[in-house]
Design brief:
heterodimer; A: about 300 residues; alpha/beta; Rossmann fold; 2 domains; four-stranded antiparallel β-sheet; 14 strands; about 35% helix; about 25% strand; B: about 260 residues; mainly alpha; binds adenosine-5'-diphosphate; binds magnesium ion
Chain lengths: ~300, ~260
C-alpha cells in the first residue's frame, strides 16, 4: 500500500522529452511539386526557432507536417515525444498554431472566437470564463470583446489569433508569419507578447520575412530554400559563417583599389563586405558617397537564397 | 462511433448554434412562413379540387410530406451551402483542425447541428399544420419527430458527402437539381408514389425521403402502420447515413491532410 503510493508519487517526474520537435528526412510532394525535399530538424525545449526562407521555400508545409495537418510523403516527425501523424488529443492540446492566413470565425464576436476555441481545447466552462478575459487583456483586446472580428484592424486580428493559439496554455506555439502585413506599431506589440511567452519557457517555432524580427526574437535560425535546409545556427554564427562582419555600401562609380573579394551589386551601388571597415574607408577618396554598418541576417539571407524575385 | 458523441462534438454543435442564435428570429420567421405559404396554396388550391387522399383530407395528407421536405431541405442546405462556406471560404474547418478536434468529431458536430436545423424546420411545419387543423393524430405527429431526426441525419450525411467532393459552388446546383428537387417531386410529398408509372416508382424508392414519408404519413394521419415495414425503412436510412458519413470522412481526410 505505502509502496504503491511512493511509486505513484514518483510518476509525475517521468521522462521529459529531450526535444520538442524531431524531424528526420522529411519530404512532401504535392503532385509534381517537391515542396519539402528532406528536412532534418531538432528543436530543444524552451527555444525560439526562426524558420526563414523566400516564398515557396516550404516553411508552411514543414510546419503543417509538424502539426500533423499535412501527411509527409516520406520521413518522420515526432512532436512532444509522439509521432506527428498520430498525435493523441493530450499532445495536440499542448500545441497552438497561428496560421499564415487569418481564419478567425467571421460569424462570431472577438470573445466568442476564444470561447469556442477553449471548448475545442477541452477547457471546462469555469476555465474558459477565467482564461478568456485574461487573454483579451494580455492582447489588449478587452475593449473590443463584443465586436465582430471583421471590424478589427489587421494587427488586432493577428493578436486575436495569437490569443486563440494560446487558449489551451500550450507548451509549443507554431507561428506562421505572425506579423506579415502589419504596421510597425502592431509588430512591436506582437513581439512584446511573444517575448512574454518565451519567458514562460514555451517553445516557439516561427516564420517571418522580417530579418530584424528574427534577430530580435529567435535563439536559432534555420534557413531554408527549395525545400532544403541551407544552414542553421544563431544569428551571430550565421553572420560569421557567411559574410564578413562589416558592410560598406558605396554609390557608383566605385573608386579604384577597393578590396573586392566579397561584394554584392545592387545596381546604383555596391555592398562591400570587409573585416576592417576603417582601413577601407581611410583608403577611399574623400568625395566617395558611402554608408557603413555591421553585417546582419538580411545579408546572410540574400547571400544564401539569391536576389531574384520569388512570386508565389 | 460511440466515441463520436463527446463534448468535442458538442463544441462543434455549439459553435454553429451560436451563429444561428444571432439570426434566430429571422430564421424562425421563414421556417414558419414557408409552410404557411405552401399549406395556403395547396390547402385552398389543390385541396379544393382533391377531396380526400388515402382517406384523409388533402391538407392532412400533405402536412407530413411538407414536414419531411422541410427537414430534408434544411439539413441538406446546412451541410452543403453553409458547410462549404465554412470549409472553403471562411476556413473555419482549417482553424478547427488546428485545435485538438479530430475530423470525425468536426463532421459529427456538423451533422448533429444540421439535423437540429431540420428538426426546427419540420417542427414549425407540424405546429402550423396542427393549428390549421391538418394533423388528425397529434400524438402520431409528435412520434414522427424522432424518425424525422434520424432522416435529417441521413440527409445531412448525404449533403456532407457531396460537399466533400465539391470543388466550387456550381457543384451544388447539381445537388439541388438531381437530389433535392427529385425528392420534392417524386417522394410522395403531394401525392402517393403508387400513382407514378412504374419506372418512376423505382426512382422514388431509391430516394431516402420516400422511405421517411412512408413512415411518418401514417403516423400523422393516424393510418395503419406495419412494424416490420417501419423497421425496414429506418434501417435503410441508418445504413445510408453510415455510408454517406464514411464517404465524406474518407474524401475530406484526403482533401485536407494530403
Ligand atoms: N496544398 C498544396 N497543393 C499544391 N501545392 C502546394 C500546396 N501547398 C503548398 N504547395 C506548394 O509547395 C511549395 C511550398 O509551399 P509553402 O510550404 O507554402 O512555402 P512557404 O510557406 O515557404 O512560402 C510551393 O511551391 C507551393 O506552391
Ligand atoms: Mg508560407
Amino acid at each position: 500500500m505505502s509502496d504503491q503510493q511512493i511509486i505513484d508519487s514518483a510518476e509525475p517526474a517521468a521522462v521529459e522529452e529531450a526535444f520538442v520537435i524531431e524531424a528526420r528526412a522529411l519530404t512532401k510532394k504535392f503532385g509534381e511539386i517537391d515542396a519539402v525535399r528532406g528536412i532534418d530538424l531538432t528543436i530543444p525545449k524552451g527555444r525560439c526557432i526562426g524558420l526563414l526562407g523566400p516564398n515557396g521555400a516550404g516553411k508552411t508545409t514543414t510546419m503543417r507536417m509538424i502539426m500533423g495537418l499535412t501527411r509527409p510523403t516520406s520521413g518522420s516527425v515526432t512532436v512532444l515525444g509522439e509521432e506527428a501523424s498520430r498525435l493523441p488529443r493530450s499532445t495536440r492540446a499542448r500545441i497552438g498554431l497561428v496560421p499564415q492566413d487569418n481564419n478567425l470565425d467571421p460569424d462570431l464576436s472577438v470573445r466568442q472566437n476564444l470561447e469556442v476555441f477553449g471548448r475545442y481545447y477541452g477547457l471546462l466552462p469555469a476555465e474558459i470564463n477565467e482564461r478568456v478575459p485574461q487573454l483579451l487583456d494580455f492582447m489588449q483586446l478587452s475593449q473590443r470583446a463584443k465586436s465582430p472580428v471583421m471590424g478589427l484592424s489587421g494587427g488586432m486580428q493577428r493578436r486575436l489569433i495569437l490569443a486563440r493559439a494560446v487558449i489551451g496554455n500550450p507548451d509549443l506555439i507554431i507561428l506562421d508569419e505572425p506579423t506579415t502585413g502589419l504596421d510597425p506599431q502592431a509588430r512591436v506589440m506582437i513581439w512584446r507578447q511573444l517575448l512574454v511567452l518565451k519567458n514562460q519557457a514555451k517553445t516557439l517555432l516561427l516564420t517571418t520575412h522580417y530579418m530584424d524580427e528574427a534577430e530580435r526574437l529567435c535563439d536559432d535560425i534555420v534557413l531554408i530554400d527549395n525545400g532544403r535546409i541551407l544552414d542553421q545556427g544563431t544569428p551571430r554564427e550565421l553572420i560569421r559563417r557567411h559574410v564578413k562582419p562589416q558592410v560598406i555600401e558605396i554609390r557608383k562609380p566605385l573608386p579604384r583599389h577597393l578590396p573586392l573579394s566579397q561584394t554584392e551589386d545592387l545596381g546604383d551601388s555596391v555592398l562591400l563586405f570587409v573585416d576592417d571597415a576603417e582601413a577601407v574607408i581611410r583608403g577611399m577618396p574623400a568625395e566617395t558617397s558611402f554608408q557603413h554598418r555591421p553585417a546582419n541576417l538580411e545579408d546572410v539571407f540574400l547571400r544564401l537564397t539569391g536576389r531574384q524575385l520569388r512570386e508565389n | 462511433m460511440e466515441a463520436l458523441l463527446n463534448r468535442y462534438t458538442f463544441a462543434v454543435w455549439q459553435r454553429n448554434a451560436l451563429t444561428w442564435r444571432r439570426l434566430m428570429w429571422s430564421s424562425l420567421a421563414s421556417n414558419v412562413a414557408n409552410p404557411l405559404i405552401f399549406l395556403f396554396a395547396f390547402g385552398f388550391g389543390l385541396g379544393s379540387v382533391i377531396d380526400t387522399m388515402q382517406g384523409v383530407t388533402y391538407l392532412a395528407f400533405i402536412v407530413p410530406g411538407m414536414m419531411a421536405y422541410s427537414a430534408m431541405f434544411a439539413a441538406t442546405f446546412e451541410t452543403t451551402i453553409s458547410a462549404y462556406a465554412r470549409f472553403k471560404m471562411q476556413k473555419t474547418w482549417d482553424a478547427m483542425l488546428s485545435s485538438p478536434l479530430t475530423l470525425a468529431e468536426l463532421l459529427t458536430g456538423e451533422l448533429l447541428w444540421a439535423a437540429c436545423k431540420g428538426m426546427i424546420s419540420c417542427s414549425c411545419v407540424l405546429l402550423v399544420g396542427a393549428l390549421w387543423g391538418g394533423v388528425p393524430s397529434l400524438l402520431g405527429g409528435v412520434l414522427a419527430l424522432p424518425v424525422l431526426f434520424l432522416a435529417a441525419l441521413c440527409f445531412a450525411a448525404c449533403g456532407l458527402a457531396a460537399t466533400a467532393h465539391a470543388s466550387s459552388w456550381e457543384f451544388f446546383s447539381y445537388v439541388f437539381t438531381f437530389w433535392v428537387t427529385p425528392m420534392f417531386m417524386f417522394s410522395g410529398v403531394f401525392f402517393e408514389v403508387a400513382r407514378f408509372p412504374e419506372f418512376i416508382q423505382i426512382l422514388s424508392w431509391v430516394l431516402p425521403m420516400t422511405h421517411l414519408i412512408e413512415v411518418i404519413r401514417p403516423l400523422a394521419t393516424g393510418g395503419p402502420l406495419a412494424l416490420t415495414a417501419v423497421l425496414g425503412h429506418i434501417l435503410l436510412l441508418v445504413v445510408l447515413t453510415a455510408l454517406a458519413f464514411t464517404l465524406a470522412h474518407h474524401r475530406l481526410r484526403r482533401r485536407m491532410f494530403d
